[in-house]
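Morning, I've got a small favour to ask if you have a moment. Here's the protein in full, and shout if anything looks odd to you:
***
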Amino acid sequence: MIVRAGILYDGTLDPPKRNVDLVVNDGRIEAIRAASGQCDLEATCVTPGLVNAHAHLEASGEPDMMGMISTTTVNQRMLRAVENARKSVKAGVTTIRDVGGSHAIAPDIRDAIEEGRIPGPRMRAAGAVLCMTGGHGWPIGRAVDSPWDARKAVREQMWAGADCIKLIATGGVLTKGAVPGNAQLTPDELSSAIEEAHRHGLRVAAHAIGTQGIKNALRAGIDSIEHGTLLDDEAIELFKERNVYLVPTLSAPTCILAHLEDGQQPEYVQKKARTLGDVMAQNLRKAYENGVRIAGGSDAGTPYNYHEDYAREVELMWSLLGMTPQQALHAATNVAAELVGLHKGLLAVGEPADLLLLRGDVGQDVRALCEPQLVLKGGLIQ
């Protein structure tokens, strides 16, 4: 297959190429060359497929996510996860990392996609989140109460099929009684879980909103901080010193705050989101401006935060963090792919032919990602 691009953004920050052909063979990019002769597909603009490094496939943007989990069956959530995987890839998300769910749903979805039985993105899956007893995320969590228990919990997730691990370092917005600013898992528990996961080649993400919990996770050797809302100057230096990714999940609080008047979200969710919304953009923009590596991830599945709307997260990195459109695309392709670890998120020889064909120049208007003309994953139209 030959795909012709009027403008090609390859996932790096290099200037875009113009009037080029991508030669696709056996699901991978075989060559990139000057446009000539006949082509099979053609678009004004071509980019790599998007990489969402933070999602929850079994949730569908319900106003009360934790309430949904407690009132639905495992089979119902599995069906929702299948539907959300399809919606994601149709919208241009060709790689996704599910960072917390119940009953090994996400690993089973990943395997079904890999076997070609259902449509969906390439996947990493964390399984249950590891939290303190009664801590944030407990409805989709495995309670951890000591460093050795943390090691056992990592082993259990691996046994259930997880290929990455998610730790809960602080409280959060969606769990009743969990104060976002408070540290939860202890430094020793974090260190033990991370060491055990790394020993087996698994990368580890930490839900961390509060300042102390962010720094606990950074010092423990975490690979990525999810949210990072209340980070401070010391945390920024630790991010850079230890080369840790920050996944800001801007869509999650933005969507909650945009629907405060709907009257369907729990009052405690609204109250906590209001408090964090006041400082989120300021702190995260400061992190970006001071050189912290930002990887795209939307927390899709949280209230009003739909899996098919990941392009909105890229737009928020532009509007709230001050990235250029190309920098935001880079964060949601190459950088996020480096974190997930399945491929490079680049359009380069030898890489998977995961392509978005767009009607407009994304470098001029990042919103061109919102309605792709066509999505290819491994050279196949989705």
